[in-house]
Amino acid sequence: MASKLSVVFRRFASSSPAGPSAVAGEHSGGAQKWKMLTVLVALPSVGVAYVNAFVFGDHHEEPPEFHKYEHLRTRTKPFPWGDGNHTLFHNKHATPLPDGYEE
């Protein structure tokens, strides 16, 4: 273990660039490639997802029909916040309580 640490320390403490470089030869330009992928692929993808969610999304849907299944929404002890029946990120339009949706 100590020998591995000493090798790592010698590599970082060495001031001579005598080893192979991460950007030498045919592997150079990697940062430029990822920068272009970010600008041309990732950012437009975020924009398309935003438009799909907030412009074309139907925000006034009725919640699905409530079925009181015995194996779902069981509370063996109350949650430590609020009234003990609501989840931490409770949404009254989407998250049902054990007896159904809130009005």
UniProtKB/TrEMBL annotation:
<dbReference type="Pfam" id="PF02046">
    <property type="entry name" value="COX6A"/>
</dbReference>
<protein>
    <recommendedName>
        <fullName>Cytochrome c oxidase polypeptide VIa</fullName>
    </recommendedName>
</protein>
<dbReference type="GO" id="GO:0005743">
    <property type="term" value="C:mitochondrial inner membrane"/>
</dbReference>
<keyword id="KW-0496">Mitochondrion</keyword>
<keyword id="KW-0999">Mitochondrion inner membrane</keyword>
<dbReference type="GO" id="GO:0006123">
    <property type="term" value="P:mitochondrial electron transport, cytochrome c to oxygen"/>
</dbReference>
<comment type="similarity">
    <text>Belongs to the cytochrome c oxidase subunit 6A family.</text>
</comment>
<keyword id="KW-0812">Transmembrane</keyword>
<dbReference type="InterPro" id="IPR036418">
    <property type="entry name" value="Cyt_c_oxidase_su6a_sf"/>
</dbReference>
<comment type="pathway">
    <text>Energy metabolism; oxidative phosphorylation.</text>
</comment>
<keyword id="KW-0809">Transit peptide</keyword>
<keyword id="KW-1133">Transmembrane helix</keyword>
<keyword id="KW-0472">Membrane</keyword>
<dbReference type="InterPro" id="IPR001349">
    <property type="entry name" value="Cyt_c_oxidase_su6a"/>
</dbReference>
<dbReference type="GO" id="GO:0030234">
    <property type="term" value="F:enzyme regulator activity"/>
</dbReference>
